Amino acid sequence: MSTAPLQQRLHSLDFFRGLVMFLLVAEFSHLFGVLMDTGNESITAAADFLFHHAQWEGLHFWDLIQPFFMFIVGVSIPFSYAHRQKKGESESQIRSHALRRAFLLLLFGWGLYCIGPEKIIFQFDNVLAQLSFTYLVAFLLLKKTPLTQGIIALLFIIISDLLYRFFPVSGFDQAFVAGQNFGAWFNIFISGYEYGGHWAAFNAVPTAAHTLWGMMAGQLLMGNTTASYKLKRLWWAAALCLLLGVLSSFFTPVIKRIATTSFIFLSGGWTIAALSVSYWLIDVKSYIKKTLVFRVVGINPLFIYLFASVGGGNLIQKIFRPYTNSLLGIFSTWWASFVLSLVVLFCLWYLCYWLYQKRIFIKI
Fold it and tell me: Which of 117, 23, 29 lies closest to 66, judged by CA?
């Protein structure tokens, strides 16, 4: 935990991280579930596309949230490294910190599955568990050239693609069929069972590309080149990823749950584009100056994610539900649920704001 003043930061990165975390906090407030229950088919369809994952094939907006988060962590790596160097930390100290952070991310990600069950569950498909691998890979490649970093990112994608296409075990040799592919076999191999929703723990390997691309973007943004040059490089990278994603989708379906090649490129392209827009609007043109609403959530991302994941949002709901039901339930149960979700969202946000005001930043 830190109580030091905020350091000079890349404002667009703070905004991007905060927006992603704000959306995750909104999910824990159950706001999206309430929007699905309006009875209006158009609103339900829009909410499903925006705030729920595709059932199998396809790309919804919500499928981009994890790539956003893993990419943002990558962008932060060179900034964090430079900051620690400036504080006088040695290479061994920085390396030890990175190893400890990767271990704790894995521990927290795995530990979330052990809350409630009567025995230990070894499951590793959530963002924290997978980020422990992608973060460590990116950190270890921090001093390599951009060409090397890009080639290794591509190798992770290709290796994953080949494993799915040519895995020889009977019953798991259908590359893109739910529960009958390499990802399902790998889940059973490490955990003893297939995961609900057919999410694959092996996704950490191909999605390492997102964190590596983020680190490459961070190094670009830290450079001494002009903002125009940086934006051009980011836009070209986004366009290339989107083009590769579209082309690969002709022979590889877009499936987030097993992180197919087409999904990695498409989501990577949209992620780089989102950072580019944020950088242009906030750091270059200063069109958006008031980003505090989102930044306060993004400054303590691990804390608010873990707090909400272990039931913080549900606890707040239990406290305020009697009031919203009593005041609004007599008129409309939907409005009572809607207002309750907004109250929970505000409380979770205000907790982040309070930590920000007290200059308390919980890190690992």
Answer: 23
Inter-residue contact 341 to 31 (CB < 8 Å): yes
Task: Tell me the per-residue pLDDT of 38-90, one tens digit each, with 9 for 90 and over.
Answer: 888 888 899 999 999 999 999 999 999 999 999 999 999 999 999 899 999 99
Task: Put residue 198 in one of left, alpha, beta given phi > 0 → left and psi -120 to 50 → alpha.
Answer: left
In a domain, 348, yes or no: yes
Q: Could you please report the per-residue DSSP string of 85-127? A: HHTT--HHHHHHHHHHHHHHHHHHHHHGGGSSSSS------SH
Nearest residue to 257 (alpha-carbon basis) of 192, 197, 324: 197
Q: What is the pTM of this model?
A: 0.91
Lowest-pLDDT choice from 9-23, 178-192, 262-276, 336-350: 9-23
Integer CA distances (angstroms), 237 to 187, 215, 234, 271, 287, in order: 33, 13, 5, 10, 24
User: In this predicted structure, what is the pLDDT of residue 9?
Assistant: 64
- The answer to the question of residue 249 being in a domain is yes
Per-residue pLDDT for 30 more than 60?
A: yes
Range of 248's domain?
Answer: 11-357
Q: Which is nearest to 212 in space by CA: 160, 264, 270, 259?
A: 264
Helix 127-140 and helix 208-222, axial crossing angle in degrees, nearest 10: 50
Asked which of 151-165, 200-214, 237-251, 277-291 is least confident by mean pLDDT, the reply is 277-291
Residue 99 domain flag: yes
Looking at per-residue confidence, does 162 or 308 come out higher? 162
For residue 272, being part of any structural domain is answered with: yes
pLDDT at 6 over 60: no
Number of domains in the chain: 1
Give the helix/strand (H/E) hosting 322: helix 312-328
Question: Quick one: 107 exposed, middle or buried, by C-beta within 10 A (0-12, 13-18, 19+)?
Answer: middle
* 158: CB partners within 8 A, 6+ apart: 261
Structure tokens given for 277: 């827009």
